[in-house]
């Protein structure tokens, strides 16, 4: 899993993109099923892909008693011996029975006509066609749809063929109203929607035949012109007032929209658990820093930080406590790094610190300050083989100002240094040129 895409790596070490998603995919919330399927868990639900073709097979956005799909940070999507999907969510364990899902998916929601209510009209009905004269009247059409799972979540959409060929916006309202249609023949179609099966079949529920009135009262031209003039004068004054009011509303809406866009931009670049920069923001900042280093000739350093034996911490104290530990470690490291450098959550229990214009010696000083701050916080970890408190290991990498420096190269160097720090004992910092242990 890479951000918002699933990538397949075959035995020949060649990769291909299997599928992409509008939301970021959590790196561990995926499981292979039968018949070449891949199930992926995200914040909006479960999605099944065909591993060979990348085709989207089905998507589950709601399930029995499940209100939210926020998965935990460890491997939280797997199959049990009965072939059911076990989903580890922040709200608890949810079991999705695929046999029951197949039954629900086979039952698409259908629509039935409940009633038609006419106002200020006397229509006739013959062979299911309602005939009415043109005029000032209205008709309200009510429909219903029975579905096997969570009927309250069902949606409807409507279209009146002969008047408007496109579907209306989805709504939970099971009725629609039409007023004073012009002469013509109209056919009302309705669809119902469920979160598992999607939109059901399009069904025709009513047909209207609006006919012209044979006799229309003729008014004198003078009286009609006088009435039109008075009406237009009043409408002109009213329109001017509405324009002034609408101008004020548009200015207010524009200000609110700009504020909302700023908030959305911040959310898109922020990790929701720790409030640190997320992976997307880190990747962009790293690319900019490499470009700047190439242009200015200044060094660029990167710290890769990993919490030691965090899986054992999660296994013994639980994922809720694990999430709280991640938030506290993020707060401690932010204070140690300072506001001049970018601290980001790289994934799971791993963090990254970007240090523009910082050479290898000073980068090691920053790494030691971060490691020492976490150790001094004395967060209890009774199942660690390194210490009885939470510790971190840090890999340090520094690149010279060259046009050949790449993001993958710098990250790979820092990752190898981090692996070396883990291998030689954890709770320490390691760089390609020097190693600093416990103090």
Per-chain topology:
Blueprint: E1 5-9, E2 15-20, E3 30-32, E4 37-42, E5 45-50, E6 56-60, E7 77-79, E8 85-89, E9 92-96, H1 98-106, E10 112-119, E11 124-126, E12 129-133, E13 138-144, E14 155-161, E15 175-179, E16 184-194, E17 198-199, E18 203-211, H2 221-268, H3 279-296, E19 300-307, H4 310-317, H5 319-337, E20 342-347, E21 350-356, H6 360-377, E22 392-399, H7 407-423, E23 429-431, E24 435-436
Parallel strand pairs: 12-18, 22-23
Antiparallel strand pairs: 1-2, 3-4, 4-5, 5-6, 7-8, 8-9, 10-13, 11-12, 13-15, 14-16, 16-17, 16-18, 19-21, 19-22, 20-21, 23-24
Describe the structure.
Helix content is 31%, strand content 31%. It has helices at residues 98-106, 221-268, 279-296, 310-317, 319-337, 360-377, 407-423, and strands at 5-9, 15-20, 30-32, 37-42, 45-50, 56-60, 77-79, 85-89, 92-96, 112-119, 124-126, 129-133, 138-144, 155-161, 175-179, 184-194, 198-199, 203-211, 300-307, 342-347, 350-356, 392-399, 429-431, 435-436. It is elongated. It contains 7 helices and 24 strands. The longest helix has 48 residues, at 221-268. The strands form 6 sheets. Strands 11, 12, 14, 16, 17 and 18 form a 6-stranded mixed β-sheet that branches. Helix 4 (310-317) crosses helix 5 (319-337). By secondary structure, the chain is an alpha+beta fold. A hairpin with a 2-residue loop joins strand 11 and strand 12.
